[in-house]
Amino acid sequence: MGRGRVQLRRIENNTSRQVTFSKRRTGLLKKAHEISVLCDAEVALIVFSNRGKLFEYSSESRMERILERYERQSYSERLLVPTGSESQANSTLECNKLMSTVEALQRNLRHFLGEELDPLSLRDLKLLEQQIDNSLKRIRTRKNKLMLESISELQKKEKTLQDQNNMLAKNLKEYEKRLPEHAQCEHQNYAQNSSWSIVQPPPPPATIQFPSLTIGGCYQAIEGITKEAETQPQPSISTVIPPWMLRHLNR
């Protein structure tokens, strides 16, 4: 005899129910994969356990693509159905969609802040921890990049300031080296200009001292004096022989 039809009802035993859920879930995911490969179909499967644990399968790389396609398709089909409250239904659908999105984002934000973690399972907590670690890695990478860029910019500024300091020190040394020469040139120019402006006084006239001579030897003395006066530079003074000397010469 063949097997009779098994009546489907809830399994009361928790252990048996959990084992049956694991087996059927594995088979369901396997069948979804087979139909997506064999028939080239886009398949999306979402399963929530009685504990709120999520199990999903998507033939695409992202589940959101299939869900967006489903929403567009269902929305287009609803547009083709003539209803009296069409605009109100569309507005209600869009509002519900936005509210669901906002609620999901707020829930994720609370989870990232470490709040309302009691409903999450161990797998969800590990996934949340991995997401936070990845976010921290990206934040640290960005922070390190900005710090390196800042350090590089400061090093460039330091090098520029050092070059300017070296140039100023070099110019200062050259200025200090040329300062004595410049001062000496100015002193020479000042002395030269002063020599032209200051008039040297003429030398005083030479005084002729006559020794006490006898009358017979006064002519030889006067001749020697005249020769000595000729050898010396003569100042511009008119010399006049006194009359008493002329009287001695006449004798």
TrEMBL record:
GO terms for molecular function: DNA-binding transcription factor activity; protein dimerization activity; RNA polymerase II transcription regulatory region sequence-specific DNA binding. Residues 125-178 form a coiled coil. It is found in: Nucleus. SMART domains: MADS. It holds the Pfam family SRF-TF. InterPro entries: MADS-box/MEF2_TF, MEF2-like_N, TF_Kbox, TF_MADSbox, TF_MADSbox_sf. Residues 88-178 form the K-box domain. The keyword Hydrolase does not apply. One of its GO terms (cellular component) is nucleus. One of its GO terms (biological process) is positive regulation of transcription by RNA polymerase II. The keyword DNA repair does not apply. It comes from the Eukaryota. Keywords: Coiled coil, DNA-binding, Nucleus, Transcription, Transcription regulation. Residues 1-61 form the MADS-box domain. This is Truncated transcription factor CAULIFLOWER A-like. It comes from Durio zibethinus (Durian). The lineage of its organism: Eukaryota, Viridiplantae, Streptophyta, Embryophyta, Tracheophyta.
